[in-house]
From TrEMBL:
Protein name listed in UniProt: Uncharacterized protein LOC142178203
Domain of life: Eukaryota
Organism encoding this protein: Nicotiana tabacum (Common tobacco)
Length: 150
């Protein structure tokens, strides 16, 4: 009988050699993607939308409905220009044909007096229908719609 280590190694080598599909992946335009890369900008304005100066150092979370439950699947921090790029790597329970995700930013943001003191900024995530190469492999490109206060 083989040792547990040998059995595990054999299983890993088999998976690599046979090219078993990655778990939690889906296809965009016939290409298998391993994640979704969401990009957008947070601006200092009454709504958080451009035009306005970007707001640096703000945490933005990607929340998706997974089997009917809102679940945080990615987070990012805005750069000096207010730009964020969040990577979703857990695609389990997500359907690219009916993606229900949003970027959420908690208020207040002390460095922007134009935004309300209470609430959450929220913007819908929209798949662009294109893919790009990331460190994890191919990812679906996504942008956000306009922020609204909820």
């Amino acid at each position: 009988m083989a040792s547990p280590t040998t059995s595990l190694l054999a299983l890993i080598l088999f998976a690599i050699a046979t090219g078993l599909p990655a778990a939690h992946a889906f296809a965009i335009n016939g290409q298998t993607v391993l994640g979704i890369q969401v990009s957008g900008t947070l601006a200092c304005s009454a709504t958080g939308n451009l035009p306005g100066n970007g707001i640096a150092g703000v945490l933005a979370s990607v929340t998706c409905n997974v089997n009917g439950t809102p679940t945080v699947l990615g987070v990012a921090t805005t750069n000096l220009n207010g730009v964020f790029v969040a990577l979703i790597t857990n695609l389990s329970g997500l359907d690219p044909n009916s993606l229900s995700c949003a970027i959420r930013v908690n208020l207040p943001i002390l460095t922007c007096s134009l935004l309300p003191r209470n609430g959450v900024l929220q913007a819908k995530v929209n798949l662009k229908g294109t893919v790009s190469q990331a460190t994890i492999g191919l990812v679906a490109d996504a942008t956000i719609g306009p922020f609204s206060i909820v």
